[in-house]
Amino acid sequence: MKIQYFNRELGQLEEEKVYGDGAVKWMYQTTSGRLLTRILIKPLVSVVYGYLQSLGFSKFKIPGFIEQFEIQMEEYLPEEGRSLDDPYSSFNKFFIRKFKDGKRDFVNTPGEMPAFSEARYFGYESMNESQSIPVKGKFLGAKALLNSTKWEGVFEDGPLLLARLCPVDYHRFHYPDSGKVLDYYKVSGKLHSVNPIALKEFADVFSDNVREVTILETENFGKLAYVEVGAMMVGKIVQTGNLKDFKRGDEKGYFLFGGSTVIVLGEKGKWVPDKDVLDYTQKGIETYQKIGSKIATKC
């Protein structure tokens, strides 16, 4: 299965290099793999794997990873206190690397929403339980995602942006606007892969996986439900913000090793994803977007 996405900055379709694609195909497309996957989706397995990526020996796979996926390391800072000759003490420290100042800027126009993750996006103008996500073929609305009778009605029929982060991507996520936190809670679950291969075979990934939900009151876009979705071999979701108030572009948190997803839901009629993102979504094609650049507009 080839995975194509639209690179918005370059204006062209590209083919994704998938980390561990052979393993994912085996786990979700073979009988023996599906049996093992029943064990691998348990949170403890991913926590242990994540711990191993924090040990010193794990740093020796960093050079090969950088070469294979052509990561532009000149854009990133070394781990704090380390030299350019030996920039990271473990694979996880490399995985949560930060951009250098000036490498990414957040759009400041009040009515323009910046991308909150550097990722591949699907966008929807109005999302409810009767609509389906390309490649998933499964309903995905506020009720399934938020698991909260308090909040699901607020976001029913509202816009939605789904950002899929690959293991090669910048794995810190940020606030798309200034405001305050109204609520924060965790939803227990499993840890399936969020790779499109897995999404095609297992329809309930986003509503079945571990999630952390933050309800935001923003200055320009009304209420937002900000949902971080855990995934297979993601050892941990770390909230680095104070979960009280925030400014546009502030770091909210990061994922430790693995491909992950951030989903943002809005109130009906408050904002809409950009037209090209909507158009490619209808074709089942994700749009690759750099963090901080415009991805939606206030209505």
Helix content: 10-25%
How many helix segments?
10
Order of helices and strands: EEHHHHHEEHHEEEHHEEEEEEEHEE
Largest sheet at a glance?
10 strands, mixed
Q: Tell me the number of strands.
A: 16
Secondary-structure content class: alpha+beta
Overall outline: globular
Mean pLDDT: 84
Q: Within the largest sheet, what's the order of strands?
A: 2-1-15-4-5-13-9-8-7-11
Q: How many angstroms separate the termini?
A: 37 Å
Q: Which consecutive residue ranges, at least 5 long each, have pLDDT under 50?
A: none
When the domains are counted, the total is 1
Report strand %: 25-35%
Which value, in Å, is the CA radius of gyration? 18 Å
Could you characterize what this model shows?
The chain has 299 residues and is an alpha+beta fold. The protein is built from ten helices and 16 strands. It has helices at residues 21-29, 31-40, 43-52, 62-69, 91-95, 142-146, 152-155, 196-201, 205-208, 275-282, and strands at 4-7, 12-15, 112-114, 119-124, 160-165, 172-174, 179-187, 211-218, 223-229, 237-239, 245-246, 251-255, 260-266, 271-273, 286-289, 294-298. The chain has a ten-stranded mixed sheet with strand order 2-1-15-4-5-13-9-8-7-11.
